[in-house]
């Protein structure tokens, strides 16, 4: 029968490709629309919640700035400095040669504090002509909220690419927002580096997911490759600890390649992206030595070397299996050796305190050091609490995540055993096969979430990296017909057609979950947005107003690092310390200035403060009279331990010193304290003392 006769007999035969093309286009269009809409709605949600929480629009500029606490205040203060500079070039020069922030110290603030987000924000604000349209603070936080919208959109797309349905993306976004307490720190610290960086990492992961797929066409593969390249470099420039997270990702790809579950060429192309990003980042971050001694560089270099030495490793013979075992040993040995050599020959001081902290954290060492014990007491650096797992369980994401993880792990294990037995890698995996573990992008995410989960079980702060991918993986699983089909293959269902049942469950289960989440959590979110909260700190406002009106322009203030950050932002006055923990000198300064809450003499404190050219001292009543929930983790307790003023006996601790606690004694206004310090201002929360330049030694 000729083609004309077949066409006449079946007139719809020639139209089928058009219908298929239209169906694909419609699916892509509505999926992208849903992804973008989800991101925009989340950004609007964050903006509305922030307004309700701080009453931002009705506050004066000083009251708005006080809402930036700790390191957030420092980041935003440099953004303000850039906008005040006569030109962008002058502003950048002042930041890279900054001697007006910390007394007796010139710092490259751009490198040390990773101020590239502030550089970009200031350029956009001035270049877009937004000065007459929007205030700088709204522009700044608007960019951050917009990036969070991109973050959510990237998670949506990742789940969609993995499952094949944008229903998974909708469920990912729902779980992400419901578990916002554990998925993001945006509520507590808007300008923090991870809020700027993690959206780019999410975009990189989304592009990498598409790039690793076996059945991707060449144009889509090229687009994903370019997006991975751009997102990797941008992520590295936005966060000083980005190379550690990329190291975890490189380990995932290494395991994926070693198990022959992915095309080796693709993995090595990603390694080249890492090398290029490290090299370019090193140059543009003022030759940052932390990137040269990073484990990422050592691992990628070792993997490239092993590729040259192990060309015939994947032949399926006994020798190749033996070489595969040696391959792991070779990569591990070369990585450790190269990293050790780099640290020997490359001068660096960055992040050494992190290694000391890990030694104490894992019980390899003990210390009385104030900084180490203070870090150990931070909630984000402790093991996660039971409340964390309870919240994830109540939102139903944790049970479904565990179910999806178990099914995928069993499937991956089956595939690995088949690879060991010599079965080749298949280019495409169909729904009927029921082998979800053969898809490289799925295996990558399984390994990735296991590694991040292991870190989150040790340090609670790592949950902000792990929990978003818990939401994404759980949503992918319940919406994926392939996962249900894999389960049914094991159960060997015969009463119902497994493919039909898998398709039904992949739509019914997420729909049921979605309705239950809507019923339980949507009213809570609406209530959260409707009720007005109040953030008002009149004592801090009064303190900042006094400094602006009464303090000399050349004054230098000493106090807790968190308060110094707020003073730098709100007044612009010079301070003795900053709430930053990536510099050994600043850490030592913080410990020395904190001695104002210890049991040391007035003369000792005076010598410490004058060594940093401090002219005013601020005592915070909240620290001096702190009643912490965990005894031994209060600032004054940590200082007593470090100074040898605390003795523990049969679970009881006693402090002893021939001097009283300085912050209490100075309030008594008796000698010798009045000889060194003169009280010039106080309110319910703060006591400000001028440090006398001429000392009167009278009893």
Automatic annotation (TrEMBL):
UniProt keyword annotation of Glycosyltransferase present: yes
Keyword Transferase belongs to the record: yes
Keywords: Glycosyltransferase, Membrane, Transferase, Transmembrane, Transmembrane helix
Transmembrane segments: 28-49, 160-178, 245-262, 292-310, 322-342, 398-417, 465-487, 499-518
The organism's place on the tree of life at top rank: Eukaryota
Coiled-coil regions listed in the entry: none
Places the protein is found: Membrane
GO molecular function, one term: mannosyltransferase activity
Bilayer topology annotation: Multi-pass membrane protein
One Pfam family linked to the record: Dpy19
GO CC terms of this entry: nuclear inner membrane
Family classification: Belongs to the dpy-19 family.
Protein's name in the database: Probable C-mannosyltransferase DPY19L4 isoform X1
Name of encoding gene: DPY19L4
């Amino acid at each position: 029968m000729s083609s004309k006769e077949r066409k006449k007999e079946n007139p719809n035969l020639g139209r089928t490709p058009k219908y298929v093309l239209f169906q694909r286009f419609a699916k892509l269009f509505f999926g992208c629309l849903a992804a973008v809409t989800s991101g925009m709605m989340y950004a609007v949600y964050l903006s509305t919640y922030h307004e309700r929480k701080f009453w931002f629009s009705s506050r004066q500029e000083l009251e708005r700035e006080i809402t930036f606490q700790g390191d957030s205040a420092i980041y935003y203060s440099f953004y303000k400095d850039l906008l005040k500079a006569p030109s962008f070039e002058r502003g950048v020069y002042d930041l890279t040669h900054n001697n007006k922030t910390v007394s007796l110290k010139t710092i490259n603030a751009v490198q040390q504090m990773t101020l590239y987000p502030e550089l970009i924000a200031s350029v956009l604000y001035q270049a877009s002509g937004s000065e007459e349209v929007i205030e700088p603070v709204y522009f700044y936080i608007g960019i951050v909220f917009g990036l969070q919208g991109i973050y959510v959109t990237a998670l949506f797309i990742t789940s969609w690419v993995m499952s094949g349905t944008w229903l998974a993306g909708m469920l990912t976004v729902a779980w992400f927002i419901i578990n916002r307490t554990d998925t993001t720190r945006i509520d507590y610290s808007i300008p923090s580096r991870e809020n700027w960086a993690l959206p780019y990492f999410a975009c990189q992961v989304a592009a990498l997911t598409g790039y690793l797929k076996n059945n991707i066409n060449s144009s889509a593969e090229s687009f994903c490759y370019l997006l991975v390249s751009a997102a990797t470099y941008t992520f590295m420039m936005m966060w000083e600890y980005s190379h550690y997270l990329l190291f975890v990702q490189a380990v995932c790809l290494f395991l994926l390649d070693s198990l022959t579950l992915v095309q080796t060429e693709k993995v090595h192309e990603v390694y080249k992206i890492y090398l290029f990003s490290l090299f370019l980042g090193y140059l543009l971050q003022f030759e940052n030595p932390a990137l040269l001694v990073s484990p990422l560089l050592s691992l990628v270099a070792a993997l490239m070397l092993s590729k040259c030495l192990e060309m015939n490793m994947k032949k399926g013979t006994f020798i190749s299996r033996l070489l595969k075992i040696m391959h792991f040993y070779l990569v591990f040995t070369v990585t450790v050796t190269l990293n050790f050599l780099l640290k020997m020959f490359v001068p660096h001081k960055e992040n050494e305190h992190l290694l000391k902290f890990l030694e104490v954290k894992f019980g390899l060492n003990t210390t009385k050091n104030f900084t180490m014990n203070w870090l150990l007491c931070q909630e984000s650096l402790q093991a996660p609490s039971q409340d964390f797992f309870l919240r994830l369980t109540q939102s139903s994401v944790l049970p479904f995540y565990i179910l999806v993880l178990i099914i995928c792990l069993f499937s991956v294990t089956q595939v690995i055993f088949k690879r060991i037995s010599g079965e080749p890698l298949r280019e495409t995996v169909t729904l009927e096969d029921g082998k979800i573990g053969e898809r490289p992008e799925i295996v990558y995410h399984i390994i990735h979430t296991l590694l991040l989960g292991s870190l989150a079980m040790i340090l609670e702060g790592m949950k902000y990296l792990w929990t978003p991918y818990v939401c994404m993986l759980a949503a992918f699983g319940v919406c994926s017909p392939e996962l249900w089909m894999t389960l049914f293959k094991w159960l060997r269902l015969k009463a119902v057609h497994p493919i039909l049942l898998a398709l039904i469950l992949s739509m019914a289960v997420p729909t049921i979950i979605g309705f239950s989440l809507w019923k339980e959590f949507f009213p809570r979110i609406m209530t959260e947005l409707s009720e007005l909260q109040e953030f008002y700190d009149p004592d801090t406002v009064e303190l900042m107003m006094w400094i602006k009106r009464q303090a000399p322009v050349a004054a230098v203030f000493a106090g807790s690092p968190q308060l110094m950050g707020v003073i730098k932002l709100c007044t612009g006055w010079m301070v003795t310390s900053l709430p930053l923990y990536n510099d050994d000198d600043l850490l030592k300064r913080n410990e020395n200035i904190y001695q104002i809450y210890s049991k040391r003499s007035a003369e000792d404190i005076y010598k410490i403060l004058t060594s940093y050219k401090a002219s005013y001292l601020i005592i915070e009543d909240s620290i001096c009279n702190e009643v912490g929930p965990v005894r031994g983790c209060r600032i004054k307790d940590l200082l007593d331990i470090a100074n040898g003023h605390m003795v523990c006996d049969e679970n009881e601790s006693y402090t002893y010193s021939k001097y009283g606690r300085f912050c209490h004694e100075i309030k008594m206004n008796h000698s010798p304290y009045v000889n060194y310090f003169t009280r010039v201002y106080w309110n319910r929360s703060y006591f400000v003392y001028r440090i006398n330049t001429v000392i009167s030694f009278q009893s």
